[in-house]
Amino acid sequence: MEQLQLLIDSQPNLLGILAIDLAIAIILLYAMRFISGIWAGVNTTEELASKDNFAFGISLAGSLLALAIVLTGAITGEAGSSFIQEAIGMTIYGVVGLILIKLGRIAHDKIALPGLDKVQQIKDGNVSVAIVDAAALIATALIIRATLLWAYDFNLDTLIAILSGFVISQSLLVIVTRLREAAYRKNNQGSQFQEALAAGQIALAIRHAGFLIATGFALTAASNFLIYIPKGYVENALGWLIFGVVMVSLLYVLVPLVKKLVLSRINLTEEVDHQHNIGVASLEFVISIAVALILMALMS
Description:
This protein has 300 residues and is mainly α. The chain is built from 14 helices and no strands.
């Protein structure tokens, strides 16, 4: 309690700044619901309450969590020198976060999973597609938050650095999806990963979601490991690329190893791909994220 009083005494505007941050965060979260409805071309109240569309609810939950993750990058940063500056900075972070989340969603829809009409699938209530959509949003948000914290200040150099880190990280998420698709074809006699998601294989979606979020967590370690160079556009981009490739490679080595140890004597392909065992898929989900969190802690 004494430490809190000392902090308030040293920063008399602290409580006001915290109130501003909280108010703007709540407003943006409120707006995100309706923005998500506009993006999907639906009425959110009708989808959630009248149609009881679980898939849309899961997708919207992913959007809200993604925005909250991005906003923590602004809240945990350096406070503004005045209430107006803090409000402007927080709003800018929120708007930039919304734009980058949307760009990440477009990249995932059009490049990572081009064979799926995710918007229509979610409208039709496909829970497996909604789970993957939410996971991709969360992974994207983790990366956005890391780039926002990594590149201090807010100017043209910062914007270029943030965009370069974002683009490289999104490219790695696409590559991860392609590798997962190849592994699925190999283990399932040429069957298509995206067709399985469209068919509603929830267990497969849960396993894939875990690896997507794990990749997002692993890539966030770059914000602690790499040094931001304001004019070093090439160095910044190269740093994110090299670090990202290393972290994804470590995930591909360590995650299967840990799964074999923790889930020994269980045929994961048979249980998840063929029998659609949600329980086993959930364990794979957790193991992937656990490995990423450990890697992230080691790199911090």
